[in-house]
Amino acid sequence: MQETPRSGLDPAELAAAVERFNGFYIRLPAVRRLSFTTLSVLHTLAERSPRRLGELTATEQVTQPAVTQIVTRLEQDGLVERHPDPSDGRAVLVHITPAGEEVVAARRANRVARIAPILARLTDPERAALAAALPVLHHIAELGEGAAAS
Q1: For residue 42, what are the CA distances in angstroms to 51, 76, 104, 132, 137?
Q2: Dist. CA 14–CA 3, nearest whole Å
Q3: Could you read off the pLDDT of 52-110 as tens digits, one per residue?
Q4: pLDDT number for residue 120
Q5: Concatenated DSSP letters of 3-62
Q6: Number of other residues whose CB lies within 10 A of the CB of residue 140
Q7: How many CB atoms lie within 10 A of CB 121?
Q8: Burial readout 6-15 (b: 16 or more C-beta within 10 A, e: otherwise)
């Protein structure tokens, strides 16, 4: 067990809270249900497209054959496209299509609609604390992405 730093922020408690929140949050959308890994690939491409298959393998933490299978299904559904990598003719780049972007946007809109009534049940101080934490959460994500890339 890690010792709580003087700041009062216990990394284990933060991890447990984020895990519990993520479990609830990823199940919020009631539109376009796809597997978690498939959605993760689509969301990754919505944020950072295009990507090589190898990059998706690393970010999604699945095998190359699994990513290839997911991309093939997404391509068949018209949600992504593969194009040759202009810097390396042997590689392909996976691009999200406008239809794929619409899926991501619809899922986000659905999450917003479903979480808004829950946030309305928070007290004013709880909402203020959560609003104040948003820049820190974004920064943690940036730091984590940087650590994963190195």
Answers
A1: 11, 13, 7, 29, 22
A2: 13
A3: 999 999 989 899 999 999 999 999 999 999 999 998 888 899 999 999 999 999 999 99
A4: 96
A5: PPPTTS--HHHHHHHHHHHHHHHTT---SS---HHHHHHHHHHHHS-SEEHHHHHHHHTS
A6: 13
A7: 8
A8: eeeeeeeeee
DSSP string for residues in 109-135: HHHHHHHHHHHHTS-HHHHHHHHHHHH
Amino acid symbol at 57: T
The owner of tokens 């920064």 is 139
Confidence bin at 4 (pLDDT 50/70/90)? low
Q: Residues of 86-97 as b/e, b for ≥16 C-beta within 10 angstroms?
A: eeeeeebbbebb
Give pLDDT tens digits for 111-146.
999 999 999 999 999 999 999 999 999 999 889 877
